Amino acid sequence: MARLSSSTSESSTAAPSTGGPGLFDAVYGSAATCTATSDRSWLQAMLDVEAALAVGGARIGLLPEDAAAAIAAACRSELYDVAAIARGAATDATPVVELVRQLRALVAPAAQPYVHLVATSQDVVDSATMLVARRALDAALDDARTVASALASLAVEHRDTVQVGRTLLQHGAVTTFGALCAGRLVAVDDAIAGVARVLRDRCAVQLGGSVGTLAAAGDAGPALVAEVARELRLAIPVVPWHTSRGRVAEIAAAAGILVGELAAVAQDTLLLSATEVGEVAVAHPGSSSAMGHKRNPASAVLAIACAHRVPGLVATVLAAMPQELQRAAGRWQAEWGTLTDLLRLVGGTAHHTAATLDGLQVDRDRMRAHVDDLVSAGVDSGAGSAGLFVDRALQEHAKLDLGGSR
Across the chain, what does the average pLDDT equal? Predict the structure, then answer.
């Protein structure tokens, strides 16, 4: 089939492009999460849903197998005019109308009636949302696990490295750097496990047809839902969930928690690397345009910058939860860009935090000197059960599987 041309449509409306990544893509995301949430990736996720709908429908006899094969073969994002789909989204309040029009044009007339079988636009977008979230968060979890591994190594190495514990940014009592790392390790591990659980248990296919009854499928509706879920490797919901947004909110909340725990690691590093403290230093500092002597902890700064934007996005998703009857009028549409930004920022936070800990330099002598100053002021020199807590954290970390769950 011929590719649908975008040459005429893009010339008048598309923004200028450098042909490469956006100016701030590497600031607010990782390469993997920017790719997973790109326009092409969103489009491919929607096409994956259309293909699964056809293949799953053929499996239970709702359409001929040759028609399903033709539809699935046409579900390749490179065959589509993204600019036209974007314009259609602005016209129809959904990208699916134009997507389906283009998909029908790519298959033979005999297969065209079976395109987008029994589904509605929200089925495609919501199921695609689950796929995009899973792909983006899987990439972010890779970097988050790198952070956890680095924290575990630091906890082992510095189990007994004494350090001043600071409360309200003032010298408090003696602890160990290993204990600080162990505390952050457990928190990051728990947050990783929370995201992994949501991806495993709560990312479900959405398929309900026009008003959630799958009427066009007759009594085969539940069977079709199961087959599409099987194709997409998504969970099977009890009922369609068009205007029940708890699943989306759980993704956003779990992502926000992970971001918060990762940013805490970056912020500790930023504070401890201040010139007046000097207890750690990043191995790969950034530069200053005006002060050539500076070695800035740029990766930690970027992790915090990403994290700072996340709570508002999570709040927007939560605010979008009360949706009207069988189809929302505005709040559902508000989720798309919000989730895209949120998923990218999770990736950016994880990536920059991992970079912050890569080769982190720890100054034991500086830590000891600060402890000596504290002890000379009459504070007890003991670190209590710090070492035992480190041991417990490392034992729990060792129990984790690759999915991040205990």
Answer: 92
Which of 17-21, 181-185, 294-298, 311-315 has the least mean pLDDT?
Answer: 17-21
Does residue 406 sit within a domain?
no
Q: Which of 5, 287, 288, 385 is catalytic?
A: 288
Residue ranges of alpha helices (H) inside 65-120 are 65-73, 82-92, 96-106
Q: Is 295 a catalytic residue?
A: no
Structure tokens at 235: 């969970």
pLDDT of residue 404: 44
In a domain, 103, yes or no: no
Q: Which residues contact 303 (CB under 8 A, 6 or more apart)?
A: 262, 263, 265, 266, 348, 349, 352, 353, 356
In a domain, 132, yes or no: yes
Per-residue confidence (pLDDT) for residue 19, from 0 to 100:
53
Produce one character per residue of 314-335: b if its CB has 16 or more CB atoms within 10 Å, e if not.
Answer: bebbeebeebeeeebeebbbeb
Q: How many domains does the chain have?
A: 1
**Of the residues 104, 309, 327, 331, which is catalytic?**
327
Active-site annotation holds for 273: no
What's the number of CA atoms in the CB half-sphere (13 Å) around residue 218? 5
Please report how the helices 221-232 and 39-59 are oriented relative to each other, as an axis angle in degrees rounded to 10.
Answer: 130
Residue (of 249, 252, 242) closest to 329 by Cα position: 242
- Residue 22's pLDDT band, with cuts at 50, 70 and 90, is confident
CA 361 from chain centre, in angstroms, equals 29
Residue 222 covered by a domain:
no
| 251: containing domain | 27-39+120-217+233-398
The string of pLDDT tens digits covering residues 365-402 is 999 999 999 999 999 999 999 999 999 999 999 998 64
pLDDT tens-digit series, residues 267-278: 999 999 999 999
Q: What is the mean pLDDT of residues 53-58?
A: 98
CATH of the domain at 305: 1.20.200.10
